[in-house]
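User: I'm new to structure prediction. If I give you an amino acid sequence, what do you actually give back? Let's try with this one:
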Amino acid sequence: MKPRILIFSLAYLPHVGGAEVALKEITDRISDLEFHILTLNFGGELKNEKIGNVFVHRIGNGSSYISKILFIPRAARYALRLHKEQSFDAYWAMMSYMLFPIVLLRFMNVRVPYLLTLQEGDPWQRMFSRWFILPFRSLLSIGFKNASQVQVISTYLGQWATRMGFGGEVSVVPNGVDLTRFTNATHPSFVTAGTVNLITASRLVHKNALDEVIRALVLLPKNVQFVIYGSGPDESMLQKLSEKLAVSERVLFKGYSPHTELARAFSTAHIFIRPSRSEGMGNSFIEAMAAGLPVIGTQEGGIADFLFDEKRNPGKPTTGWAVDVDSPQQIALAVKDIMTNPEKVARVRTNGLALVREKYDWNLIAHDMKKLFDRVLGSA
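Assistant: Good question. You get back a string of structure tokens that encode the predicted 3D arrangement of the chain. For your 380 residues, that looks like this:
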């Protein structure tokens, strides 16, 4: 019988973010383990189904804060019943918030070894000092201290695990790219393009700083436009900002696009951009590199693991253009540099793709994750 792993994740397919993609890509590649996942039913999805190599159990209903908070005790109660039926060999908490149901289970004398994965994109202060987290931070500390293994997607997040009390060795295993999909993209030439497309694929939230790209458009030629794939609470604000700055005709809101369609969207672009104010890692950056797009970003958080700038990282092969946080002037300069230096762009693209092939292939990542699961199962 295959060892059984129960995953705790607030969201799962069809809802797609970096964590959800990682869960799907990793579990699809590990066939000698049986995976189950407990996740929130946001409304309208099947309560129970199998997706790839994962048995999905959706509980609760709705995406409100109350629904997300109630998910914790509901998940612990449902896991208790499911554990009696399935006898899980290990748990997997996808992000720190999912430690709460595991800690509740420990209080119910259900003590199963578990892996914690940190994928958070928000800064430390927002994650662990919000009013509704502070009273329960001691519970999170219990979860960190008792984890069998902790895996993080960037060296930046590894510091969080130590700070929250994990005493073991933290394993850095990043998210990856489906190279069969993203490395086949072709792109229009800057020379022949009547319009230069800056593209992003991201949630429309403050941390992703898409407002700074819109401000940079004012400093760029009028044939440069910004194409936004994604949705989020900041959409209205971004639209109003583009109107205020008289660049609304150059900002295209494409809305949510299935992850499977992103490679096609990248093939219409010239430059990928996301000047993040904070970032755990950022899957879209790696996917853009794999697709052959020059990349502009900050070096906040986990981005510093792979975005190496010619001037800021002279000892490493250049893989992108780094800018400071909240600096539309630097964004505009980076765009102009890319538009006018084709030989440099070709060199940076080559370096970026080489880095992706070496470190960010999902097949390599799944292999490293399987080793972590073996360690967790061996600690039982």
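You can read the tokens as a compact description of the fold. Here is one thing that stands out. The chain is about 40% helix and 15% strand.
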